[in-house]
């Protein structure tokens, strides 16, 4: 037969297509049904430089759902941490007679809290039902615990900042005097809860099946409180004059040190899941964060003692570093759900170890 | 009400652990994928009974699977896996001959290479005797008898919410919208859910999801309304081969063990149960499976663990970090004098 036999034939639907040799499912020469390995059989996805163990999957499709949370939750991680450590600085400044630091940090703490509230509610699928969070207190849900932590934290913070904002005409009236009187206990009460605000978000992320967040559950609390302290200290350096900002500089330096060390420890954990932190967008964000935090902390410990300009610049660098650290960590979690390797390879390894006789440690 | 194994480990009676008294026995699904024919009647029956909205008509390119994966609007999902592997003790005698489907890797490469050098770029295919190792355009199995035998096999499996003994979604839900029913299943109360999305990340199987236009989380309810009415779930009712079997979980486990033994006796050594073991990372699944390959081939995690297992440790570390922050905050004011 030839093509000139006069019979009409349907043209091949993929004639001229460039990928007629593509493998429609994960078969390759390694054996039947093998999924894509390190070379990314289905292509198009950002791959790491480190070669991976061969693993099998269903068409390279993710096993887990990526988080439905967006940038708002990453942003909340920052604003919540900033608010918490600013509240701590405000309470300390109040007790040690540093009015400018107290005023700036009270207002900053309150602004951070309000921003957090907005971000949290706006990220809900049904924002008008935000108050359903208050119908239960559930120990197994860090989000429920966090809700009640914020309920305990919020009123004192807002009251303390309200005292700073009273117009002169109201300050002398009875309500005005009462608010000013209540400001110190309110600020102290919120400062006591503030460390919980700064650290519970680590448990919030870790109490998920997201491999990068769950596997880092020993490190995230220190990363997040360190990042919060660096941001709060940086904020204090921006809003207070050099003479009053000593505690802010020290808190910033200590927080930055904790953040940098923990960040590096996260990068050095054994196992595939670490790659979610050390590759791709998460890696770039966290590297930029480390540069800003390191620079900000160095200036905070040196030049910022003398120059207000240098202090403000260092403070802004620390704030930016904290933002990027939170977004980088968030991004690492999202990336680890999008690639089935982060789920399948460690779990296979765990099964292999268990079969070999050893108990699975993690 | 929190008992020793409320969060992790074997738990005989999840409904009682959740506070139900005088409740019916735990029910579930046993999905025997060795008799699944991929008809998707379960998907259709589920959509119809539960009024699950349409979620996009896509051609995914994943064999006959155009559903993709479980989600907010796909509570049953039939997976299709194409493999070059004989079933049981089948012996084709043709392992080195260019028989089989058009879609195995080696043959694809042979064909693609041939087309690159062909005068008309492959348009002459089927019009003359061209030896490119391409046996036919017929579907696998379209012919019966010995001449049609290949070493191709098609795995089909109807996936569903596992209704775990320790459910990650249920543990993290901050509103109480997700709850444990008297049947020990896990169900979302849609009038309570505020769409926080925590359950989506809490599920180690990637089952539950938020519906974008609706904002709430949805998943299989194991037809809670039908159970209350004494009916079996719609998918099990519709399944023509009894691949999806509904019943009391203890009975299903016994039945599954017998079926596994039978298949092993028939030479299907690769048959295995998935989610049956009460000692696994989620305390055993309410909906478990008989699979013919490793779970990840079907898109299932090989060794899922409920995140709640590590919750006490997480709070411990967070507590240490919080104390460190408080100490640091005090120290920066106490130390350093008035600077």
UniProtKB/TrEMBL annotation, chain A:
Cellular component terms (Gene Ontology): plasma membrane
Alphabetical list of InterPro entries matching this protein: Electron_transfer_protein, NrfD-like
Primary location: membrane
Region called Disordered, residue ranges: 1-47
Stretches that traverse the bilayer: 73-95, 107-125, 145-166, 187-210, 222-243
Keywords: Cell membrane, Membrane, Transmembrane, Transmembrane helix
Biased composition range(s): Basic and acidic residues: 1-13, 26-47
Gene3D superfamilies: Formate dehydrogenase/DMSO reductase domain
Location of this chain's protein in the cell: Cell membrane
Domain of life where this protein originates: Bacteria
Membrane-topology annotation of the record: Multi-pass membrane protein
PANTHER family from the UniProt entry: PROTEIN NRFD
Family: Belongs to the NrfD family.
Protein name in UniProt: Polysulfide reductase
Organism encoding this protein: Streptomyces ruber
Automatic annotation (TrEMBL), chain B:
Subcellular location: Cell envelope
Pfam families: Fer4_11
Cofactor note: Binds 4 [4Fe-4S] clusters per subunit.
Gene3D superfamilies attached to this UniProt entry: 3.30.70.20
Transmembrane segments: 314-334
Gene Ontology CC entries for this record: cell envelope
Residues annotated to bind [4Fe-4S] cluster 3: 161, 164, 169, 203
Binding site for [4Fe-4S] cluster 1: 36, 39, 42, 239
Cofactor(s) required, per the database record: [4Fe-4S] cluster
GO biological process, one term: cellular respiration
Keywords recorded for this protein, A-Z: 4Fe-4S, Iron, Iron-sulfur, Membrane, Metal-binding, Repeat, Transmembrane, Transmembrane helix
Binding site for [4Fe-4S] cluster 4: 173, 193, 196, 199
Protein name: Ferredoxin
4Fe-4S ferredoxin-type domain sequence ranges: 27-56, 152-183, 184-213
């Amino acid at each position: 037969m030839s093509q000139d036999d006069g019979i009409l034939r349907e043209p091949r639907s993929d004639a001229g297509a460039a990928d007629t040799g593509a493998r429609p499912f994960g078969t390759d020469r390694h054996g039947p049904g093998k999924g894509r390995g390190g070379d990314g059989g289905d292509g198009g996805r950002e791959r790491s430089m480190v070669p991976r163990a061969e693993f099998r999957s269903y068409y390279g499709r993710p096993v887990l759902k990526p988080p439905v949370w967006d940038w708002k939750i990453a942003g909340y991680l920052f604003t919540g941490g900033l608010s918490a450590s600013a509240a701590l600085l405000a309470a300390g400044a109040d007790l040690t007679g540093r009015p400018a630091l107290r005023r700036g940090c009270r207002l900053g703490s309150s602004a951070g809290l309000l921003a957090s509230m907005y971000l949290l509610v706006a990220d809900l699928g049904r924002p008008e039902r935000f108050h359903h969070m208050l119908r239960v207190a559930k120990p197994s849900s860090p989000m429920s615990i966090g809700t009640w932590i914020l309920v305990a934290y919020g009123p004192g913070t807002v009251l303390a900042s309200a005292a700073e904002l009273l117009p002169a005409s109201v300050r002398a009236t009875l309500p005005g005097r009462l608010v000013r009187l209540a400001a110190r206990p309110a600020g102290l009460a919120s400062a006591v809860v503030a460390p919980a605000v700064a650290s519970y978000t680590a448990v919030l992320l870790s109490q998920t099946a997201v491999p990068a967040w769950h596997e880092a559950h020993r490190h995230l609390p220190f990363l997040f409180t360190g990042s919060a302290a660096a941001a709060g200290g940086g904020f204090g350096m921006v809003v207070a004059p050099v003479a009053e900002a000593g505690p802010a500089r020290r808190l910033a330096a200590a927080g930055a040190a904790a953040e940098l060390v923990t960040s590096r420890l996260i990068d050095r954990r054994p196992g595939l899941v670490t790659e979610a932190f050390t590759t791709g967008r998460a890696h770039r964000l966290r590297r930029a964060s480390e540069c800003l935090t390191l620079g900000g902390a160095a200036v905070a410990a040196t030049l910022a003692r003398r120059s207000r300009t240098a202090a403000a610049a260092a403070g802004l660098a620390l704030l930016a570093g904290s933002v990027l650290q939170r977004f980088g960590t968030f991004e690492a979690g999202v990336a680890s759900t999008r690639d089935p390797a982060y789920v399948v390879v460690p779990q296979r390894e765990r099964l292999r170890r268990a079969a070999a006789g050893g108990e699975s440690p993690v | 009400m929190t008992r020793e194994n409320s969060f992790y480990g074997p738990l005989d009676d999840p409904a009682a652990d959740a506070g139900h008294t005088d409740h019916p026995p735990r029910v579930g699904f046993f999905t025997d994928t060795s008799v699944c024919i991929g008809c998707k009647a379960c998907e259709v029956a589920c959509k119809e009974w539960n009024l699950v909205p349409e979620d996009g008509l896509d051609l995914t390119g994943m064999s006959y699977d155009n559903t993709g994966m479980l989600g907010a609007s796909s509570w049953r999902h039939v997976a299709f896996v194409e493999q070059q592997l004989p079933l049981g003790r089948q012996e084709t005698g043709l392992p080195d001959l260019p028989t089989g489907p058009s879609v195995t890797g080696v043959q694809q490469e042979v064909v693609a290479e041939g087309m690159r050098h062909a005068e008309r770029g492959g348009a002459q295919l089927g019009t003359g005797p061209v030896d490119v190792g391409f046996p036919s355009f017929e579907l696998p199995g379209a012919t019966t008898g010995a001449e049609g035998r290949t070493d191709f096999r098609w795995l089909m499996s109807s996936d569903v919410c596992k209704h775990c003994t320790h459910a990650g979604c249920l543990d993290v839900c901050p509103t109480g919208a997700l709850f444990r029913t008297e049947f020990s299943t896990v169900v979302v109360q849609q009038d309570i859910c505020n769409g926080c999305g925590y359950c989506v990340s809490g599920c180690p199987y990637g089952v539950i999801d938020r519906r974008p236009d609706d904002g709430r989380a949805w998943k299989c309810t194991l037809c809670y309304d039908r159970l209350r009415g004494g009916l079996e779930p719609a998918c099990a009712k519709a399944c023509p081969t009894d691949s999806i079997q509904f019943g009391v979980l203890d009975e299903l486990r016994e039945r599954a063990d017998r079926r596994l033994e039978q298949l092993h006796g028939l030479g299907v050594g690769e048959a295995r149960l998935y989610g049956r073991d009460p000692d696994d990372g989620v305390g055993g699944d309410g909906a478990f499976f008989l699979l013919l390959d490793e779970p990840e081939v079907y898109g299932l995690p090989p060794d899922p663990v409920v995140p709640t297992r590590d919750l006490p440790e997480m709070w411990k570390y967070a507590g240490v970090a919080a104390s460190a922050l408080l100490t640091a905050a005090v120290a920066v004011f106490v130390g350093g004098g008035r600077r």
